[in-house]
Structure formats: C-alpha cells, structure tokens
Amino acid sequence: MTLLPAAFFNYIVPLQIGARDVAFPRLNAFSYWVFVLVESLLLFILLRYRQRAGAATPKATHGHTALEIAWTLAPALILVFIAVPTMRTIFATQQPPAFDALKIEVIGHQWWWEYRYPSAGIVTANELHVPVGRPVVLEISTADVIHSFWAPSLGGKRDLIPGHVNRITFTAESVGTFTGQCAEFCGESHANMRLRVSVESDSAFRGWLAGQGGLGRPAAKGSVVPPLRLHRLPHGDGGLGGSDRAELDARGQSHDDRRRRAAEHARGPGALDQRSAGREARR
Fold it and tell me: Which domains can be identified in the chain, with CATH numbers?
C-alpha cells in the first residue's frame, strides 16, 4: 500500500536529508522481510496441514503456551524495532534550527499553500524555494482547517493545526525539484492541494529572491502607481471563471500572480472542470 501514493511523488530519488536521520528506507526493507517470513509460514502451514483424502481426523488441541508467548512477543519486538528509527527521525526534524537557518512560514489554506520569507519580505504560493546545503526551518500553521504538509523527499510530514505552530528542520543535500501533497483531507478540493519544492544552488536561490521583488511599500502620496497587470478571465455561456491548474502551477510567474491565481482556484474548484469542458466543446 505504501507504494501506491509513492508512485506520485519523488520516493525513488535519493532522499534530501542524511541517511542517519531517515527511517523510511530501513523500515520499508524490514517490512518486506516480515512480509516474506509471514507469507512463507502461511504457505508452509497450508501445504503441511492440508486435508488429505483418507487421512485420520487429527487430534484436537486446546492451546499451546509456548506458541502463544511467541506470537505475543514477536509483534511487540517488531513494534520496538520500528519505534527506534521513527523516534530518531522525529527528533532530528524537530531539533532547534542553526543560527543561520532560513526561516520560512508555511500557511495552509483551502486549498493552497502560502509561503512567507520574513527575512526577505517575500510571500509566494504553492512553490517553495530553498537553498541547497543551508539549514531550513519551516514554521507551519493553518488559516482555516487541519492540513498536513508532506514533502516525502524532505524527511516527513507535519500536521497544520488551528491555533498551533509546528516546525520541520532540514538541510537539503542536492539540487532538484520535489513534489508533495496535503496529506489530511481538508475539503472538496483537497486533491488539488499539491506543493512543489525547488532546491537550488545558493546563487540561483539569491537570484530567485531578487526576482520576487519583496512585498513592496505603499506608494507615497501623489506618486504615480504603475498599472496592474490584469489576468483575463474567460466568460461565456457557462459563466466560467477562475484560472486553470496549468496557469496556477506555471513556473516563472511572480509571487503576486501565484497568490491571486491560487485564490481564484480555491474560490471555484468546480469551475476548473467547467472551463476544461468548455475548451473541449469549442474545438
């Protein structure tokens, strides 16, 4: 069952935190051996003790103390073995951040992600950028219901609980783009609440920060404010509105565009399907 959701994310690529802190690969390997052992014993019992034609009725038994102790202790030992690396990983991702750690505020909304970089005055949506080799601390909260931030390659997930701030601390070790998903059902458009993490070199990350332009400042009284770039929304017989998913996820757009398009997407999840249907009808 673990492999089914894994097929949609970057499980196959090398994980982004140190191997000593990663429980997932070792626990997966251990679970495979447990599966092989259990199925082998089951197959042996089915073949060894199957009913045979003409065989006498076996003697009934009413308990086996040694066997009962064994099948009680075995699961307990397995749970202990699983708990040790799991707890190590939890503490590794909860340790206090380094003094030079990049702080990013992650805010979950129905149904999009907001990322705030306080040190740079930048707010963006759905696409998280972090530098390679630098400690990062994510301060995770929610603006509405419970969500769960899950980027498998970055070392686990955290729930977003109203009124509470959770944290994930990690250091990405290689450049790449990694996907994730809200892992807690949060409403009708939960499946669309995806996320993307771009791990970049230090120079590329600084260039991305410079390209975002920060939050800006209020225009001085009497100054000329440049006109805003408007996003044209299609209108037709179906009353279509909002932006489609491709526009929402487009790379290279400004953080203002992403925030606005994410909000449009969240306001009308059903409109996306209508818009796609309208396009097909016009072809």
Answer: 3-46+68-94 (no CATH), 102-212 (2.60.40.420)
